[in-house]
Amino acid sequence: MKRWHRLAAALAVLAPIAAAAAEPTCVVPPSLLETAATLPEWSVAALDRASPLRIVALGSGTTKGLGASTPAASFPARLEVALRARVGARVTVLNQGVQRETANDMMARLDRDVLAHKPHLVIWETGTVDAVRGVPLDDFGALLEAGVAHIREAGADVLLVNPQYARAMPRVVNLLPFVEAMRTFSASQDVMLFDRFEVMRYWVDNDVFHLDESVAPRLVGAEIDAVYDCIGQLIARMIIDATPDAALAAK
């Protein structure tokens, strides 16, 4: 349990603080959002304006919204707001995050909690809990491959979200192999990846947000809401960039 407490204090329950301005900025270098992967199922669905667009977010604590002031401040909820501003009210994002779940735990409920909703796009955040629990990297990679294949067979696209970054991470858990494994997998399998680790490292290095290790886990709220909001906005931008202009011309 001590390991989990240390992780919660240093990473899983973040306390981001806007260091440079009263209003935090979500800007990152364009290269951090570039991808050669596509979202064919989502794009086809987006062109059919008579039908709703469904996204399911699968993940662990940070998908659920750990540390956020309300469920509406989680990154899936903020993603829905950002997409609706561009695509219209027919976009829904269902949050199926469950705290402390490994990729294997998520695979066990993939059909029931995700594919049963017939999503056009599945956002799968994973890797952190597997690293904390010492899951063998080969096993993690095999689960990732099997999960993405199963989602695609069900007729949905996948957008992966890798672990988040904090200064304390190297002292807490050996996360980098899992971060790299997800990058390698996404590139080789034509899967879109939101590189949350690198995005958050950019924010820390450039004093956009400061992940303050000394702040107690309970002292969150508005600060962590700002990070979740930025993540939702940036993922929305990636999705929009992968969607044909014709599908976005009219809401």
Describe this entry's structure for a reader.
With 251 residues, the chain is of the alpha/beta class. The protein has a single domain, classed as 3-Layer(aba) Sandwich (Rossmann fold), CATH 3.40.50. 48% of the residues lie in helices and 13% in strands. It contains 13 helices and 7 strands. The protein has helices spanning 2-12, 40-47, 61-64, 75-87, 103-108, 110-114, 128-132, 137-153, 169-172, 176-188, 196-205, 222-241, 245-248, and strands spanning 16-18, 53-59, 91-97, 121-125, 157-161, 192-194, 209-211. A 5-stranded parallel β-sheet has the order 3-2-4-5-6, with helices on both faces. It has a two-stranded antiparallel sheet with strand order 1-7. The termini are far apart.
CATH architecture: 3-Layer(aba) Sandwich
SSE order, as H and E? HEHEHHEHHEHHEHHEHEHH
Number of beta strands: 7
- Going by CATH, the homologous superfamily would be SGNH hydrolase
Fill in the keyword field for this structure.
251 residues, alpha/beta, Rossmann fold, five-stranded parallel beta sheet, two-stranded antiparallel sheet, 13 helices, globular
Present the secondary structure layout.
Layout: H1 2-12, E1 16-18, H2 40-47, E2 53-59, H3 61-64, H4 75-87, E3 91-97, H5 103-108, H6 110-114, E4 121-125, H7 128-132, H8 137-153, E5 157-161, H9 169-172, H10 176-188, E6 192-194, H11 196-205, E7 209-211, H12 222-241, H13 245-248
Parallel strand pairs: 2-3, 2-4, 4-5, 5-6
Antiparallel strand pairs: 1-7
Helix pairs in contact: 4-12, 8-10
